Model the fold of this input.
Amino acid sequence: MDFGLSEEQEMLQETVRGFAQNECPTTRLRELFDEGVGHDPALWSALAEMGVAGLIVPEQQGGAGMELLDLALVAEVLGEFAVPSPFIGHSLAVRGVLLRGSEGQREAMLPELASGAQIATVALHESEAVWAPQDWTVKLDGDRVSGLKMFVSHASLADRILVGVQGGELVWVDAKGEGVQIEPVEGVDRTRPIATVTFTRAPAELLVGGSGTATQLTDAAAVLLAADSFGAASKLIDVDVAYALEREQFGQPIAQFQAIKHTIARLGTDIEPSRGLWWYAAHALDHLQDEASRAASIAKAHITDRAMNAARQSVELHGGYGFTWECEVQMWFKRIMFNRSILGSPDQHRERMAELGGY
Done:
């Protein structure tokens, strides 16, 4: 049995990686990070032209017809380069339409999302503790939705918002329509701006007809965040190695010091073996539904925790410089911090995977 990637999947990653290296090098990332807008229209437009916006959209609706694992492979690369884009929120909105939308709704919604002509995001969080579908309290009354959602990524940029409502249902809302108030919030990760969104009897279209559940959507979110964190942590290890080879103390590179070598080696053995967790969880969401939720929580809890440790260690390896704004480590540190906190902390996901495992 082959547990590796297919030739097409490797090519997908190579293509996106080449694009990110050319169009979002660290110098450009620094400019965007300092600006704090979390978005470069040219970057997103180019990603959409490459087919990233519609990666999992069926071919008959303008997409590439790929699976969640392919989406997660792109998330890894975008995390590796900390690319500021609405990719995760947009991809989850697409996933939600595929899971819960009727055939007519898919035909109406997906082509514009696949082309990138419309940008979408998801509104799932209601507080730090409330993110799971069974806990949602935002209400749908007929075709009107009311309530508050927090930590909505790229809400000010989005044309549409996929909103989780009471009963685990999903509704489609015009982000610029009546009854929608978006208040930007100062977030830690400047590559992904967040907002609090208040819905006051906002017109909404209930997604009906699909066989999927909102839990499958939050599980997909956990996998994409794990993949993004994996990419960011892998990047930090490369940054640590480069810095250790360049920085000198006592007339020699600090890479020669045993403590430095051992620390970086431990980080490598912490991160690389966890790759299989999000690969398997992504595969399970499309092919092994009975195992998918638990696998998604394991990946989210374990990888974001390991990635956060790698980020902390990277700051320390850079010494006093590592704590400054000028040090590039902070951009990936904050991205990982965001991933770890959003849509369930590691402790919350460990509790969930224990429950799902019958403990």
In short: Residues 120-206 form a domain with the Butyryl-CoA Dehydrogenase, subunit A; domain 2 fold (CATH 2.40.110.10).
